[in-house]
Structures are given as structure tokens and as C-alpha cells.
């Protein structure tokens, strides 16, 4: 795909125009498919964030003054544009992130679904009115906050910004998006298509860069709310820094998801689901299976899974990891596990794809007889690596899951309803799957984990996000003097 100049020199998008950063500093963007430079991206400083915030602030009054139905009309059109540009958007994701084209298309399909949720806002926003005393009416309206911000990671360059942008904007806020500097191209198309859909200038702005831009967002006095998605270490920094400057913040972090597999699980369904969960997007999903806890006799399921995993072909059905550093880190975990005596059932180290020798490929890797104290059992590896821990019974398996610092997702594979219910009740995670390896709740259900996988109240999508992006205005009204009620009556 031949990239246009807007994508080979990624600038900031402020007040409806692409502009250089104040310092004009840039960094290179590589494609993980072959390791070659595809673009450069602006590195923003505090002044760039401030420029964007001031213009977003100027745009706020008009935008918030429109009716909810008027604002949703733009997102009906935008949703249509996403569909029309599906191939182009998916190709951009593939080039910058390295996932397969089918995975990239699925990402855009999910972004479309997120827009479908946001256009349903007039039906579900839930403003209330009630006659609370004779002749006295109370009404509660959900009002936008003002300028808000969204900071996003590399692994879903198109979908994760759609977790926040459509809902925040439809609810009347104006926004600054800070995409991952590793994958800044998708946000350029997002800005172009939102403008084409009729979004007024200044309502949606993109400020590119890294740490410095994020810190400026956390500290800016005119930003009212910050949503963050990324690693736990940065989520903690962003949460602490934003809330200490008196903003509301929801910060989603990393994950180490456990899949508990019982002997009565449907063998083929379990094997295929676990494999898809650990290898999809090359394991770079916060919902990926990272640990399989095999309860009692599950060798037949493991054997099926390993046979199926051998069919995954890097460069075809398995995409890349994001960088040379990520590849080296993942391979270090595998080597360390090997040194600790685990059994390597499938080894994805040293994977090279012919014709794409510079690409960052790691083959599917399955480690057996991992013990709960090992790094392979505890750390987020974020690659196509599955650690299998053996447990004697379901209680032992649940203890292993509960001991993780994270808590994004957990799943159980069984045909026994009471065993499934036990895991549903006792797993310490925000999103639970029963015979589902990637238990992403679909709209209108909300997305968000527990423990060190999320900081802040509420979730980031779905109905829960309505509370996050709005504040309640309560008005008490009396028109009739005959009502003879005072304020306490
Ligand atoms: P990351 O934390 O390195 O980066 C996320 C964002 O923070 C980026 O925009 C980046 O520019 C910025 N950033 C990086 N270092 C910073 C610092 N020191 N100070 C301030 N800002 C900084 O995450 P990533 O590598 O882009 O994404 C992968 C991580 O995201 C994984 O841990 C994954 O589990 C997590 N993730 C979580 C969810 C979820 O829903 N919980 C979803 C997607 C990804």
C-alpha cells in the first residue's frame, strides 16, 4: 500500500488542521512486518498540549450546546465512513502494528460496533424527571465535563481510541487524543473521517508524542478527565498524576489472564479457543490467554492444542510482535523458563519469515509444567506464549488465579454448570468467560478489569462510560404558586 503524505509524516491534528509540533521534533515509525521505516511522528511538548486544549475549550460551548440527537447524527455518518474505508483502515493497522489483515479487519468491525453504541445514546442516557412533591419537579440531566483526554496503547491502534472517543464526544465533551507514538497512523485517518462526517473543528484533536505529552495532559488544569489504556506501570503513574491534579481518571493496565481447563471440557472447543486466545494478535491483547491452569487429567486437550498450534504460520496466520525489543523480551522469558526446567512443547524463538527477515516474528510457544512462582506464570509476557500450570483440583486452580496481581479476564472450560459457577463466583477478574477464551463483553456491557488491570471507578466502555464522561445536573422546579410547597416539602 502506497501511504499518502499525511501518513508518512504524522503531524498533530488541532482545530481541524494537521500542524507541526512546536519543537518540530519527530521520531521514526517502523513497520514490524519488515522492520523498515514507514513514517515519522511529531513529538509534542507541553505547549502543543496546551494549544490543543485551548482550541478544544473554545469549541466546547457550541458542541455541548447541540442536542444529543444532533451530535449522534455525525456518528451515524462516521460509522458509515468506517465501513466504506474498512480495507484502507485495516491495511493501515496491519502496516503499523503487524497483525494479520483478518485481525485488522476485526478491529475495525469492533470500532464500528462501538459507534453503534454511541448513536444509541439518546435511547439510553437515562435523564430523569419526577414530581417529588405536589407541584415540584426534580430533573436530572447528564452534562458533559468540558475538555477530556484519551491516551492509548500500541496493540489496537484503531479500536482502543474508539472505546473512548465516540462516547465522550457524543455526550458533548471535546477531546485531545494521545495515540501510542509507536502506531500513530490510525489516528490520522480517524481525524480525517470524523472531519468528513461533519465534526466541527476543535471538537476532536490529536496530540502525538510520548511521556512528555502524557505528563502535560495529566497536569493540564483545563482537562477535566483522563482515560488511559496501556501497561500497569504507566497506568499507575497516569492515575496518580491526573487525580493529584484533581481530574477524574480511569486507567486500564496490563493483564495475566488465566484459563482454567477441566477434564470434562469439550476437547476440540477448548483446544481451539485457548489457542486462538493465546496467539491472536500475536498474544498482544490484554484479553489474551497467558496461563492455562490444567486441572487433573487434561493431557488430551493439551495434545490437541499443540497439534493445532503447529499449523499457525508466522507471516500468514500469525502476525508480528511490535518491536525488536518486544521480540527479545519474549524470547528471554522463554529461555528463562527453559533454564527453570519447564517442558517446551512448542518453541517460537528464532522465527524468521522468508522475504521479511527484518520483521519481528515470534512463533506460537507452549510451556508445560510451569510453576506459580516462575516469571512465566506471573509477568505479562505480551507475546504468543502460553504457560501451562498443572493443578490437582478446581480449588487449587482458583487459588492460582486469585494470586495474580492482575485481574482483567479469567475463563473456565467445562461442561459442568456448577464448576463453571464456582469459577464465575471466585475468579478475581473483571471479565469472565465460560467456554470462551477471549471474554470481551460486547456493547452495551462495559469493558474493564480488576486489581492492577484497572485503576479508578467504573469501566471504560458501554453504559459505565456514560457516568465517566458526564456530570449530573439536578434541577428542582416549581411553576405553580398554588403548589404551596417550600423547598423541603
Ligand atoms: P504503554 O504503557 O507503554 O503505553 C501506553 C501509552 O502511555 C502510550 O500512549 C505511551 O506513549 C504512553 N507512555 C509510555 N510510557 C510512558 C511514561 N513513562 N509516562 C507517561 N506516558 C507513557 O503500553 P503499550 O506498550 O503501548 O501497550 C501494551 C500494554 O497495554 C500492555 O500492558 C497491555 O496489557 C495494555 N493494554 C491494556 C488494555 C486493557 O484493557 N486493560 C487494553 C490494551 C492494552
- The number of helical elements comes to 17
Uncertain regions spanning at least 5 consecutive residues: none
- The N- and C-terminal alpha carbons lie at a distance of 69 Å
Return the average pLDDT rounded to an integer: 97
Strand content: 15-25%
Bound molecules: nicotinamide-adenine-dinucleotide
Structural class of the secondary elements?
alpha/beta
Give the key terms.
489 residues, alpha/beta, seven-stranded mixed β-sheet, six-stranded mixed β-sheet, 21 strands, 39% helix, globular, binds nicotinamide-adenine-dinucleotide
Describe this structure in words.
The protein has 489 residues and is α/β, with parallel strands linked by helices. A seven-stranded mixed beta sheet has the order 15-16-17-14-13-18-19, with helices on both faces. Strand 11, helix 10 and strand 12 form a beta-alpha-beta unit. The longest helix has 20 residues. The chain is globular. The mean pLDDT is 97.
Write the layout of secondary structure elements.
Elements: H1 5-8, E1 9-10, E2 12-14, E3 17-19, E4 26-30, E5 37-42, H2 46-65, H3 68-84, H4 86-97, H5 101-118, H6 121-124, E6 128-133, E7 136-144, E8 147-151, H7 159-170, E9 174-178, H8 185-196, E10 204-206, H9 211-219, E11 223-229, H10 232-244, E12 248-252, E13 257-261, H11 267-279, E14 289-295, H12 299-309, H13 324-339, E15 343-346, E16 365-368, H14 375-378, E17 385-391, H15 394-402, E18 409-413, H16 417-426, E19 431-434, E20 454-455, H17 462-469, E21 470-478
Helix pairs in contact: 2-9, 3-5, 4-5, 5-7, 9-10, 11-12
The structure holds nicotinamide-adenine-dinucleotide.
Amino acid at each position: 500500500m502506497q501511504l499518502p503524505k499525511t501518513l508518512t509524516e504524522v503531524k498533530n491534528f488541532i482545530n481541524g488542521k494537521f500542524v507541526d509540533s512546536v519543537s518540530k521534533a519527530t521520531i521514526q515509525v517502523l513497520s514490524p512486518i519488515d522492520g523498515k521505516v514507514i513514517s515519522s511522528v511529531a513529538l509534542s511538548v507541553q505547549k502543543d498540549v496546551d494549544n490543543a486544549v485551548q482550541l478544544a475549550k473554545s469549541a466546547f460551548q457550541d458542541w455541548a450546546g447541540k442536542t444529543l440527537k444532533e451530535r449522534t447524527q455525525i456518528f451515524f455518518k462516521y460509522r458509515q465512513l468506517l465501513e466504506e474505508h474498512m480495507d484502507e483502515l485495516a491495511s493501515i493497522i496491519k502496516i503499523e502494528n503487524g497483525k494479520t489483515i483478518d485481525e485488522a479487519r476485526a478491529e475495525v468491525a469492533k470500532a464500528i460496533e462501538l459507534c453503534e453504541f454511541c448513536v444509541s445514546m439518546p435511547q439510553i442516557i437515562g435523564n430523569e424527571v419526577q414530581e417529588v412533591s405536589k407541584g415540584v419537579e426534580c430533573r436530572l440531566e447528564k452534562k458533559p465535563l468540558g475538555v477530556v483526554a484519551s491516551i492509548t496503547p500500541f496493540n489496537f491502534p484503531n479500536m482502543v481510541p474508539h472505546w473512548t472517543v465516540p462516547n465522550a464526544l457524543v455526550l458533548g465533551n471535546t477531546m485531545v487524543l494521545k495515540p501510542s507514538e509507536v502506531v500513530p497512523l490510525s489516528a490520522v485517518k480517524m481525524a480525517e473521517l470524523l472531519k468528513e462526517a461533519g465534526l466541527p473543528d476543535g471538537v476532536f484533536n490529536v496530540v502525538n508524542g510520548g511521556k512528555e505529552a502524557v505528563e502535560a495532559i495529566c497536569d493540564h488544569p483545563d482537562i477535566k478527565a483522563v482515560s488511559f489504556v496501556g501497561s500497569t506501570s504507566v497506568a499507575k503513574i497516569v492515575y496518580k498524576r491526573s487525580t493529584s491534579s484533581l481530574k477524574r481518571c480511569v486507567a486500564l493496565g496490563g493483564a495475566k489472564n488465566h484459563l482454567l481447563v477441566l477434564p470434562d471440557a469439550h476437547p476440540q472447543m477448548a483446544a481451539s479457543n485457548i489457542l486462538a486466545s493465546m496467539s491472536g494478535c500475536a498474544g498482544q491483547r490484554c484479553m489474551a490467554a497467558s496461563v492455562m491452569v490444567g486441572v487433573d487429567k487434561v493431557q488430551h486437550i493439551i495434545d490437541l492444542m499443540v497439534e493445532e498450534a503447529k499449523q499457525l504460520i508466522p507471516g500468514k496466520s500469525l502476525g508480528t510482535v511490535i518491536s525488536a525489543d518486544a521480540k527479545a523480551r519474549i524470547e528471554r522469558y522463554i529461555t528463562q523458563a527453559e533454564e527453570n526446567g519447564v517442558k517446551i512443547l512448542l518453541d517460537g524463538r528464532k522465527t524468521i519469515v522468508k522475504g521479511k527477515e527484518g520483521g519481528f516474528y515470534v512463533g506460537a510457544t507452549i510451556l508445560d509444567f510451569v510453576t506459580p512462582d516462575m516469571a512465566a506464570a506471573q509477568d505479562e509476557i505480551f507475546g504468543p506464549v502460553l504457560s501451562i500450570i498443572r493443578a490437582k483440583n478446581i480449588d487449587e486452580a482458583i487459588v492460582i488465579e486469585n494470586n495474580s496481581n492482575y485481574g482483567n479476564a479469567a475463563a473456565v472450560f467445562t461442561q459442568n454448570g456448577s464448576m463453571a459457577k464456582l469459577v464465575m463466583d471466585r475468579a478475581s477478574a473483571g471479565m469472565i468467560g465460560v467456554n470462551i477464551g477471549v471474554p470481551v463483553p460486547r456493547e452495551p456491557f462495559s469493558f474493564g478489569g480488576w486489581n492492577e488491570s484497572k485503576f479508578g471507578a467504573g469501566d471504560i466502555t458501554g453504559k459505565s462510560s456514560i457516568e465517566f464522561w458526564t456530570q449530573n445536573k439536578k434541577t428542582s422546579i416549581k411553576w405553580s404558586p398554588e403548589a404551596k410547597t417550600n423547598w423541603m416539602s
